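PROTEIN DATA CARD
Card holder: RNA transcription, translation and transport factor protein
Chain length: 224
Origin: Tricholaema leucomelas
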Amino acid sequence: DETEFRNFIVWLEDQKIRHYKIEDRGNLRNIHSDDWPKSFEKYMKDVNCPFKIHERQETVDWLLGLAVRLEYGDNADKYKDSTPDGAKNTDNTAKSAEPLINLDVNNPDFKAGVMALANLLQIQRHDDYLVMLKAIRILVQERLTQDAIAKAGQAKEGLPVALEKHILGFDTGDAVLNEAAQILRLLHIEELRELQTKINEAIVAVQAIIADPKTDHRLGKVGR
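Structure generated from the sequence above:
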């Protein structure tokens, strides 16, 4: 609404920004004047707003940012130790669990840093830089930690697999795609086997804790 927008600008200048002296705010306060757009354009230049008069959303954001900065500057001692209401009840564990939550993803330095890391680690680019940073974090955790490097250094000997002996169950119409699908299915089966092994190990560990002390699951019997 045009009237509300003009009132909003006047309120910001009167209450927070206060760039003009009171006696110089007359043209800006005359919101029903046909010349108000010119007065507003002059005001934007006077406060060094980098946006044009037709860029309403950007101008509003910028003026609000200026108002907040001036408000803080006038009351620095009051605000410097303040904590956002939403964060007062958040414990330290929750904060450390998601360290990316307060990052300014629109900061040019942040974008440049993420892009440099992504290029270095050969990670696919994404429009959302925060998504790219999370991908970098996952890669570092899974590939570049000491445990991951040690595990990767362990030689694994495998047996050759004849793909033609494994039935895919469907046909993509392309021999190359069929072969890729067979490989993915075999890899998936291998992952399921590893998961089942871990589940079995967990079951055995739990049984060892809760079983009768006389029980020896290795012997397959209970008793002395």
